[in-house]
Amino acid sequence: MTMRTLPVGEHGLLVELESGEAAEALHAELLRRAAARLLPAVREIVPAARTVFLDGLADPGRLAAELPGWRIPPLDRGDSEIVEVPVRYDGPDLAEVARRWGVPPEEAVRIHSGTEFRVAFCGFAPGFGYLTGLPERFHMPRRATPRTRVPVGSVGLAGAYTGVYPRASPGGWQLIGTTDAVLWDSAREPAALFTPGTRVRFIPVWDTADTTPDSTTPEQAASEGAAP
Amino acid sequence: MTDSAFVVVRPGALTTVQDLGRGGHAHLGVPRSGALDQPAHRLANRLVGNAEGAATLETTLTGCAVRLRRAATVAVTGAPCPVTVDGRPAAWGAAVRVPAGALLEAGAAAHGVRSYMAFDGGVEAEPVLGSRATDVLSGLGPAPLVDGAVLRLGTPHGPVPGVDGVPHRGVAPELVLPVVLGPRDDWFTPAGLRTLATGDFRVSAASNRIGLRTEGPSLERALDGELASEGMALGALQVPPDGRPVLFLADHPTTGGYPVVGVVPEAYLAAAAQAVPGTPVRFTPLGRASWGPPAGRNATG
C-alpha cells in the first residue's frame, strides 16, 4: 500500500492514500488496533476522501515511521448490520440524474436503491455521511448553483457520494429523494445514524396517496421548498 | 427568587455557554467547540472553586448582564472589562460574592474580545456528547443567550480558594503566531510561503468562533484546484481561493477542501481569540515538524 505521511502541527498526522478504498481500509485497521489497545493514545481519528487524519498524538513521527510496515487487510465489506433508510424518491433533481445516467427515473430509483452503500466518512455537519457504493459511471457533478436551502432529510448525490442532509442547510447536491429517518439526535445513543464504516441501503417507499415513484413530478417536489 | 438560576438581562453581541468542548467526535462531523480562551475559562472556574471543566459564559466585545436568583460567587476573566453588581463596581479577575436578586454585569471589553463569567456550581445545560459548549457552526449545545432566557446553575461543591486577584497577562500590540508548516505547504510557491512569513496581515472583522480571518496579501499557490476533503486540525491555517489565511478556532469544520499551509500550536490560540479586528498579525513559520519528510517525498510500504 502506497501512503504518504504528512505532519499536521505538533501532534497531528495526515496519512494520504492512493484511493478512498485504501483510506477506508486504513481507517478500519486503525479502529481495530485502537480497540485492541495497540495504538498510542489519540484524540481524533478522522477519515476523509483519500486521507486519515490522527490528532492528539504524543509522538506523531513514531507512528508515521511505523505505518508503512503495517499489513493492512483489504476492506472487509463484512456482515455487519445494514442500516435501512426508507426514501421517497421524489427529489427535484431525480429527472436530471436519470437523464445523465441515460435511464428512466424509475430505473434510476432501482439503481440507487439496489446499491449497498458504505459511510466512507462524515463531515460538513454532525451526522452527515459521505456514502460510497455507486459505480463510477453513476457519479454526478454538483449543481452549478447551490440551493440556498435544502430541506432536512433530503437524499442527494455529488461526485462519488450519496448523502442525507441531517438538517436544513444550503447545499449543492443533486436531490433525488427524502427520508424521515433521523440522521442526528443529540439525545439518542448513538446520536449519529451514520458513522464511518456503516453499511447502508435505501429502501423505496411511497406516500399512501402515491403508488409509483414517478407520480411525483420534480415540480411538485420543488414546490415543497427545495427550489434554489 | 431563590432557585438556582439566573435571568439574562442583556445578552450582548454574542454570549454563549462554554466549557472544554467535545473533542473526540470529529469523525462524526462534530467540531470540538469549547471556550476559545481556555486559560481564561479555566482561571475563572478556579477562582470560584469549580472544576476547570464547569461551564462558563463567553462574551463577545460588549459583555452581558444577568440577574441572579441565588447568591453566588462569580468571577470574570479573559478580556478585561468593568464588572458591576447592581451598578456598583466590583473586581475583574477575582472572586466576587453576589447576593440573590442582584444584577451582575460585565461591560464592554477594554481590550481583547472575549470575557469569561464563571459562577460557583457552573452553568447547567443539557450536555451533548459530554459537553455543554455552544457550537455556532453545527448548532449543538445550548442556544446563545437571549433577553429573558433563564439558565440554571449547578450546586457549588468546592470551597472558594482564598485568592485576592490575578494579574492580567496584558495585550500585545500585534498578534504573533508561530506556524508549523504542513500538511499542504507544497501547494504554495516559495514566494507564497515568503508572503506568509513577511506579509502584513490584520485580523478581519469577519472573524468568529469558527475562524480568525485575515486581511492582507494573498498567498501564491503552486497548485490550483481543490483538495479532496480531508480532516482539519484546531489551529489549522487554511487558505481559501482568495489566498488569505483563515486560522481555525474551536468551532471549525472537521473536514475541508482548501489547503492547510500550516498549523498554529494550541497554546497560541487564546491570544488569537482575544485579538480585535484590525490587530496586526505576524506569522512566524517554524518549518515542518521535526519528523516530517520534506514536502513531496513519498513513503512507500
TrEMBL record, chain A:
Class in the EC hierarchy, top level: hydrolase
EC number(s) from the headed UniProt entry: 3.5.2.9
Top-rank taxon, per record: Bacteria
Extent of Low complexity compositional bias: 208-218
NCBIfam families: 5-oxoprolinase subunit PxpB
Region listing for Disordered, in residue ranges: 208-228
Protein name as it appears in the record: 5-oxoprolinase subunit PxpB
Carboxyltransferase domain ranges (all copies): 3-194
Entries under Pfam families matching the protein: CT_C_D
Keywords on record: ATP-binding, Hydrolase, Nucleotide-binding
Record GO terms (molecular function): 5-oxoprolinase (ATP-hydrolyzing) activity; ATP binding
From TrEMBL, chain B:
SMART domains registered for this protein in UniProt: AHS2 (SM00797)
Ranges for domain Carboxyltransferase: 27-300
Keywords attached to this entry: ATP-binding, Hydrolase, Nucleotide-binding
Gene Ontology molecular function terms on file: ATP binding; hydrolase activity
Matches recorded under Gene3D superfamilies: Cyclophilin-like
Protein name, entry field: Biotin-dependent carboxyltransferase family protein
Organism of derivation: Streptomyces malaysiensis subsp. samsunensis
